[in-house]
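[Discussion] Sanity-checking designs against the backbone

I'm trying to build intuition for which residues belong where. Below is a structure token string of 409 positions. I'd appreciate it if someone posts a full sequence so I can compare it with mine line by line.
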């Protein structure tokens, strides 16, 4: 596979570039508001419920625009949110019901109205994020490309990290003339280039260990051999001779000659019969297989034999745990302003994070309150088995208390 070599070039001077190129790509449409107008959105007014008033975690039963505006004026929250995950409506022009045929929410905003409605929330979310905070925006193929441009405007192109492709369901037998729609997408942005990050890994299995780490040293430790050079010419120490050898043409040493001598002295350099040096990388130093940006193992909850609330479009808790562990630390504040069934909030609590959830749907709030009280229900092939109809307790940490806020009348 060809590897591109980053190249430093002098940026064009302003007089050489038109306004569009200087400001990056933009998505223009009727009704697009100036960010100052959005940041001036009147804050909603809320009061604690008399029935659910038990902790610092917050659940708001209200439209999220007013809540986000209020949180932007809250010194305890503004600039302190470490992670935002949102799974908004996908512009399907549909209505959704729960598994019990109760109306959950309407998804009737489409086109530019959908984009602007979500953009308003994203601008306020950017204000709420800590400087080392992250946003994960979950969408499908209808609007992911539009919102990529919007997020570039708000967060900056340089703070785009990934477009994660997730397999959401099992293969479909389509009758229409198109490929089966089995994927959706998660746009991952950070507020700055310094952000909370704990690399997600999957455990090694024996087959992959044998393939990736085929060598064994005299102490029985498995390792693999990797090059000690990298693409690109360097004029400093890493471009100089080491052991009377220069790096291959067009490349440089990954380490200085002094560092390479130290590694060789520790037995970390493998020398081939022809005198070609390579670095030994030991399995014992690997925490696992780094997760890539295609997720095949995180299908929707309704496509798994797992515990669910029955709320439509409910996401897989394992997926939320992966995101929360990767982009926050225990004690951090996590926000989901399209909280739905509460999977983000539940996962955050179980991992020792603080949380704020928002949803205006009566069914969503009812679902979350029930989830917080009794847990989730089994579904799947065994759902009608009497011995398996029990619920699974949700919270396993002390971070279970929350206060429900409703709009002041």
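Best answer:
Here's mine. Compare freely.
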């Amino acid at each position: 596979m060809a590897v591109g070599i980053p190249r430093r070039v002098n940026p064009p001077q302003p007089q050489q570039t038109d306004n569009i190129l200087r400001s990056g790509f933009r998505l223009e449409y009727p009704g697009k508001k100036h960010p100052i107008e959005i940041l001036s959105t009147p804050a909603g007014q809320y009061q604690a419920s008399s029935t659910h008033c038990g902790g610092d975690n917050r659940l708001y039963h209200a439209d999220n625009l007013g809540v986000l505006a209020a949180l932007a004026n809250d010194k305890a929250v503004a600039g302190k949110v470490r992670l935002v995950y949102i799974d908004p409506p996908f512009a399907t022009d549909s209505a959704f019901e729960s598994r019990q045929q109760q109306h959950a929410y309407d998804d009737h905003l489409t086109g530019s109205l959908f984009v602007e409605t979500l953009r308003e929330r994203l601008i306020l979310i950017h204000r709420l994020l800590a400087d080392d905070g992250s946003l994960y925006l979950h969408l499908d193929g209808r609007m992911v490309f539009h919102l990529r441009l919007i997020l570039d405007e708000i967060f900056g192109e340089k703070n785009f990290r990934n477009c994660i492709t997730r397999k959401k369901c099992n293969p479909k037998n389509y009758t229409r003339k198109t490929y089966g729609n089995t994927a959706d997408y998660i746009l991952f942005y950070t507020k700055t280039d310094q952000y909370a990050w704990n690399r997600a890994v999957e455990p090694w299995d024996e087959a992959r260990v044998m393939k990736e780490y085929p060598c064994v040293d005299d102490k029985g430790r498995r390792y693999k051999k990797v090059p000690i050079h990298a693409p690109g010419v360097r004029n400093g120490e890493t471009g100089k001779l080491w052991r009377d050898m220069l790096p291959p043409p067009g490349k440089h040493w990954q380490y200085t000659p002094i560092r390479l001598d130290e590694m060789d002295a520790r037995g970390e350099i493998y020398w081939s019969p022809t005198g070609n040096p390579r670095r030994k990388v030991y399995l014992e130093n690997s925490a696992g297989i780094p997760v890539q940006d295609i997720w095949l193992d995180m299908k929707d909850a309704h496509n798994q034999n797992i515990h669910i609330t029955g709320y439509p479009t409910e996401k897989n808790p394992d997926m939320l745990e992966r995101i929360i562990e990767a982009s926050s630390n225990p004690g951090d504040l996590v926000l989901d302003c399209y909280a739905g069934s509460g999977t983000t909030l539940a996962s955050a609590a179980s991992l020792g994070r603080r949380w704020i959830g928002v949803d205006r749907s009566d069914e969503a709030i009812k679902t979350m309150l029930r989830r917080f009280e009794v847990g989730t229900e089994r579904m799947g092939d065994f759902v009608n088995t009497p011995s398996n109809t029990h619920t699974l307790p949700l919270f396993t940490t002390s971070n279970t208390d929350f206060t429900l806020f409703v709009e002041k009348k």
